[in-house]
Amino acid sequence: MTAIDELRMRTRIALRAGCNRRPVIIVYSQGKSGSSAVAATLEQHGYRAVHVHTMVSHEIERRKPDYRGTDVEQGAHLWWAETVIKKRLRKLTRPLRIIVTIREPVARDISAYFQAMVRRQSPLPSNPQDLLNPETLTWFEDEFVTATGLDVYAAPFDSVRGWQRYRTENCDVLIVQQERLMPDAFTEFLGKTIGPVKLQNAAEQKSYYHTYDQFVQSVTLPESVVESIYESRFVQHFYSADQIDQFRMRWRER
User: Fold this and answer.
1) Strand partners for 196
2) Which fold has domain 3-251?
3) Exposure of 180 by Cβ count < 10 A (0-12 exposed, 13-18 middle, 19+ buried)?
4) Is 4 or 207 the better-scoring residue by pLDDT?
5) Which residue, among 201, 202, 184, has the nearest Cα to 193 in the 3D structure?
6) In 3D, which of 191, 203, 182, 209 has the Cα closest to residue 41?
7) Which stretches does DSSP call E strand in 122-196?
8) Is residue 190 very low, low, confident or very high in pLDDT (cuts 50, 70, 90)?
9) Domain extents in the chain
10) Alpha carbon distance, N-terminus to C-terminus of the chain
C-alpha cells in the first residue's frame, strides 16, 4: 500500500466513523508556521485535528499536481481540505473552530524554501531575496477572508500576549504566534487544559538542518527589503514594536 493509498483509507475511515465523535478543530495556516505541532498536540488531547493550508477551491485545484505526484504531505493537506471540509464540515450547524498559527515572515519563508528545495532537488538561489514569498504577507487577505469571511484586520490583535480569539456567526477562531505557542491560549480557546506544544516538522529534525542552520546564521537582507517586510500590514498588526525591532536586527545587513 502506498502512502497515498493509506491516506485515502484513513480519511474514509474517519468519514464513516463520523468526525463528530471527536471534537473537530481545523488547523488552518501557512506552512512552516508551527501548525503541525498544534495539530499533533490536539490529537494527543482527544481532538480530530483537520490540518490544512488552504480552504479556497481554486487554490486546492492549483496545488493538486503536487498531490498527484510524490508530495504526500502536501497531498494530505489537500485531501482533508477537499474531502472533509468541503463535503463534511460545511454541513455542521454550529460555528467551526479554527486555529491559525502565524510566524515572522522571513523565518517562515526561509524554512519553507528549504523544505521545498529538498523536495525539488533545486539549489539555493544566489540572491537571498529570492527566498522571500510576497504571498506570506497577504495570506489573510488572499486566502483566509475568502474561506471564512472573517477580516482579522478589522479587530485588534494582542501582540504582547501573542494570541487573540475572534468569533463570528460561522467561526470561532484562535490566532496565535508561532513564537509563543503557550498552552494557556489553547486551554482558554478549547475550555480544556492543554499541555506544552512541541514543535513538529521543524528544521532541526530534517536531514538538511546543518546547511539550513549555517544559512540562517549568515544570511542578511538589504535595509530596504527589511523595512518593506516589517512595515507591512501583516507584521505591524500581529507583532509588537519590540518583536519587530528584534526581527529587523536579525536580518538586516550588518
Assistant:
1) none
2) Rossmann fold (3.40.50)
3) middle
4) 207
5) 184
6) 182
7) 163-167, 171-177
8) very high
9) 3-251
10) 52
